[in-house]
């Protein structure tokens, strides 16, 4: 069962995601062009490994699992191909929030290379 996302939490992360969308648009991004969008997660190595194994269920590919950065923090980097229009990013946001809750990890955001030419 999927846990509903609290409205306050949604508002906070969606505001940050809108900032990323605005920045992309200001730099000429064409939202309708599919591209790889990466999402990073931090958490325990065990939780990240569980997410790594299950990530394809949400259309992701694994970019990299880092067992410990310079601070000893494990990271998982996932990617999936999609557009950056608001509807697609809303879906991405809901997905990463649900993954946080389901796997006990924390999303550190998403990013992509802007697409400025057809």
From TrEMBL:
SUPFAM superfamilies: Hypothetical protein VC0424. It comes from the Bacteria. It holds the Pfam family RraB. InterPro entries: RraB-like_sf (IPR036701), RraB_dom (IPR009671). Residues 15-112 form the Regulator of ribonuclease activity B domain. This is Ribonuclease E inhibitor RraB.
């Amino acid at each position: 069962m999927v846990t509903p996302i609290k409205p306050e939490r949604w508002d906070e992360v969606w505001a940050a995601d809108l900032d990323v969308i605005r920045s992309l648009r200001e730099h000429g991004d064409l939202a309708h062009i599919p591209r790889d969008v990466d999402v990073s997660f931090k958490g325990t190595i065990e939780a990240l490994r569980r997410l790594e194994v299950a990530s394809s269920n949400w259309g992701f590919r694994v970019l990299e699992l880092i067992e410990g950065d310079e601070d000893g923090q494990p990271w998982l980097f996932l990617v999936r191909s999609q557009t950056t229009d608001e509807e697609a990013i809303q879906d991405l946001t809901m997905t990463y929030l649900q993954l946080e809750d389901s796997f006990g990890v924390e999303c550190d955001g998403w990013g992509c290379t802007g697409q400025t030419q057809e």
